[in-house]
């Protein structure tokens, strides 16, 4: 019999994991506690315990060409940024296309995952699941944990003095569904992630007043970037990545600063972040809502009174009726022993964010925890491709080193806090994992055999299809998908005039291309 792999969860990462296991000839069984696939992207009106919760207006932050699984482009008529229902539709098509459903057990919760007595030699795991009140034990050769990190809200009320005397209403952003609760009220949004900005904008259309309290500020990107192109197709290119990673720190900081401040001056809008490594958030409306006075930005909360709030460095108190805490989520794995994945102050020691560093057998992997500035789907999929090959035991350079001492551990592990994750450049991370499995495209190699493709790959967006040009899991359609990516972007918006060919965009780059490529070759790639 083949190698049996347990996959926990049937969201984005779980579907990719199941598919990659099948591609490598392993035998996956995917356990999903709810009755359907989609995880985070499956909207439900009621909030289910232990499951992520969306509000109806959620739209993807990354564009369809940059978020697709690498061998399954989005349908061309889908909009460039996807409402949650269409993203779910895409996941269903994916599951259908690769016949994943027959490997998923719905309504089944993973209760515990423990090392098998013979773990030291076989690396096997005892997995206990529960369905309809009945528990079952299984033995698996390997485990992929794909349960995500958006199920357990982090609500540190003790950090907000006076909260116990506050008479208004308060809730975590996970509880938020519709803006009508804010009708005519004074609303305070605490914390400024993507949800915070979204909820503030929606609330301000019906509320009397909306205030966002943010301690550290934020960088804001609009989905509609330079010349109206999607932000990630302009920013996430090999050229940009090369510039960002090879420039001296202050210079690359200046570049990013310049790019984000071209839309509006963050300082004038009270948003300039102190911290240099900070994940930008995506919101198309916030600056204009600040400019029209619908939303005010304030520093951190000093204390709550009965029906008002005091901010640091602001003398006067502000009236508040409702507080929404957009304070993020706690990463937790209730079914794992502490010894398997240690999560301390939001850090988990995971080699390349995937393999627990102190396990002597690399037979358990955690997928989809990284929060890069770029599409999560290609990342989860790349992790799954790598992990399924490690499980299969192919390729010498795949198993994580067993750390000997603390100093060495520090080099190999990454924290999972927001501040540090930006240091992991999305494209660099994808390239690293791709090189482990031999799927990283060689721009220089292609320059000789297929110069047009090479230039498109280097100057154009780093779309996931690049990782299917060669290596294991090579996909015949990859080259075509790369060369037609702009057509799929323009198709849903050029709806009044006949869509011409979009190659005019890269054309301009060709001339500059050869010059810069020469430079790149000289500086060593």
UniProtKB/TrEMBL annotation:
Q: Which residues cross the membrane?
A: 503-523
Grouped into one coarse class, the protein's main location is: endoplasmic reticulum
Stated EC number for the protein is 1.14.13.148, 1.14.13.8
Q: Which cofactor does it need?
A: FAD
Entry-linked InterPro entries: FAD/NAD-bd_sf (IPR036188), Flavin_mOase (IPR000960), Flavin_mOase-like (IPR020946), Flavin_mOase_1 (IPR002253), FMO-like (IPR050346)
Q: Does the keyword tRNA-binding apply?
A: no
SUPFAM superfamilies given in the database record: FAD/NAD(P)-binding domain
Q: Name one GO cellular component term.
A: endoplasmic reticulum membrane
Q: Which UniProt keywords apply?
A: Endoplasmic reticulum, FAD, Flavoprotein, Membrane, Monooxygenase, NADP, Oxidoreductase, Transmembrane, Transmembrane helix
User: Which cell locations does it reside in?
Assistant: Endoplasmic reticulum membrane
Reactions catalysed, semicolon-separated, are: hypotaurine + NADH + O2 + H(+) = taurine + NAD(+) + H2O; trimethylamine + NADPH + O2 = trimethylamine N-oxide + NADP(+) + H2O; hypotaurine + NADPH + O2 + H(+) = taurine + NADP(+) + H2O; N,N-dimethylaniline + NADPH + O2 + H(+) = N,N-dimethylaniline N-oxide + NADP(+) + H2O
Q: Name one Pfam family in it.
A: FMO-like
Any single GO molecular-function term of the entry would be: trimethylamine monooxygenase activity
How does the record say this protein sits in the membrane? Answer: Single-pass membrane protein
Describe the task this protein carries out: Broad spectrum monooxygenase that catalyzes the oxygenation of a wide variety of nitrogen- and sulfur-containing compounds including xenobiotics. Catalyzes the S-oxygenation of hypotaurine to produce taurine, an organic osmolyte involved in cell volume regulation as well as a variety of cytoprotective and developmental processes.
User: What family classification does the UniProt entry report for this protein?
Assistant: Belongs to the FMO family.
Q: What is this protein called?
A: Flavin-containing monooxygenase 1
Q: Which organism is it from?
A: Vidua chalybeata (Village indigobird)
Organismal lineage: Eukaryota, Metazoa, Chordata, Craniata, Vertebrata
Q: Which gene encodes it?
A: Fmo1
